[in-house]
Specification:
The chain is of the alpha/beta class and about 350 residues long. About 55% of the residues lie in helices and about 5% in strands. It has twelve helices and five strands. The chain starts with 10 loop residues before the first helix and ends with a helix.
Length: about 350
């Protein structure tokens, strides 16, 4: 990859570069973007940077690999024995369970010439269900010194459980962040309470109380914003049937928007708990999705076992699924929060 490549300017790539220079590498990445060629180049650049034998920061390549040593050259030609590429095959153009099993077997073997083994899944969303489930198992117990890289131009089609266990880099746009300032403040308070060891049920209920209060604020502000835009606001004298229709529309719009913002809030919590899981699960903490809360994440990670940290992600996923059904919200949130390992 030549200097000055487009991906150089992406904030995601700069973040990746910074992490690499500090020797922090997470074990599973999801690179998404519009161009598969660009994503493949980024995966090659990453695996070269990790395996280059004469890497120099600021050299040829944006990520600091030389481009000339045997490792770099073989990675560029797609024939490095430790850098495994998986592409959709078969008539259905899908990635099959056999392909996943083969590559995971290979990833589990000691590297031949490289410091890091890597499996790169091109068009990862084309894994069929069995393949995705087999892959998920590997994600839960990653082999040491291995790197799994998923490339996708359509990441929404990946299983949520897979997406949530990868460090996500979106090429060509902003990195993940909490968009709502009040959500960010809530998460900061939540994570700092959790960072201090506390085992009492009371403190757990205080966390629950804080979350329910934040949800109530969100609902109130959605109601305010959407009511102000409703025609009910400007038309006093209308037919009862039309009034009723507008009222129904407003109620539905409020509910839909509220659910979306509730989901954003739970996403933010999910990102932070994923940082905890990654900090617990790898020798190196990798890229933090929420760098400003990384210290709090590290403190919680110190108290948890890897399965406990993983269970937290599952708890949030289950809670979100429950909330999509018609279960009572406060109950679903309470059950979820009390089950978290904090
Ligand atoms: Zn090199």
């Amino acid at each position: 990859m030549a200097a000055g490549h487009d991906t150089d300017s992406s904030p995601a790539v700069r973040l990746l570069l910074r992490s690499l220079r500090r020797g922090r590498v997470g074990h599973a990445y999801l690179f998404s973007g519009d161009s598969m060629t660009e994503l493949e180049e980024l995966a090659r650049a990453l695996t070269k940077a990790l395996n280059c034998t004469s890497a120099q920061p600021g050299s040829d390549d944006a990520l600091g690999s030389c481009g000339h040593c045997p490792n770099c050259r073989r990675i560029d030609r797609f024939n490095h024995p430790d850098i495994l590429w998986v592409r959709p095959e078969s008539k259905l153009r899908s990635i099959t369970i056999d392909q996943i099993r083969d590559v995971m077997h290979a990833v589990n073997l000691k590297p031949t010439d490289a410091a890091w083994k890597a499996a790169i899944l091109v068009a990862a969303e084309r894994m069929n269900v069995q393949a995705a489930n087999a892959f998920l198992k590997t994600l839960e117990e990653p082999p040491p010194r291995s790197l799994l890289v998923l490339l996708s131009t359509d990441p929404q089609r990946l299983l949520e459980t897979i997406r949530s266990r990868c460090l996500r880099l979106t090429v060509g746009s902003e990195v993940t962040h909490v968009t709502d300032a009040a959500d960010g403040e809530w998460l900061t308070r939540f994570s700092s309470v959790v960072a201090t060891p506390q085992k009492s049920l009371l403190s757990r209920y205080l966390l629950l109380d804080g979350l329910l209060k934040r949800l109530a604020e969100i609902r109130a502000s959605v109601e305010r914003e959407l009511s102000a835009k409703s025609p009910l606001e400007t038309h006093d004298e209308v037919e009862p049937s039309l009034r009723e229709k507008w009222e129904d529309e407003l109620t539905a719009a409020i509910e839909a928007e509220y659910r979306k913002r509730r989901s954003d809030l739970l996403n933010a919590l999910h990102w932070w708990l994923r940082d905890v899981w990654i900090a617990r699960n790898t020798d190196a903490p990798g890229i933090s999705q929420l760098p400003e809360l990384a210290d709090n994440a590290a403190k919680l990670a110190d108290r948890l076992t890897p399965p406990q940290a993983l269970e937290n992600l599952k708890v949030i996923e289950r809670t979100r699924r429950m909330l999509e059904t018609n279960v009572q919200e406060a109950l679903a949130i309470e059950v979820g929060l009390l089950k978290l390992n904090l």
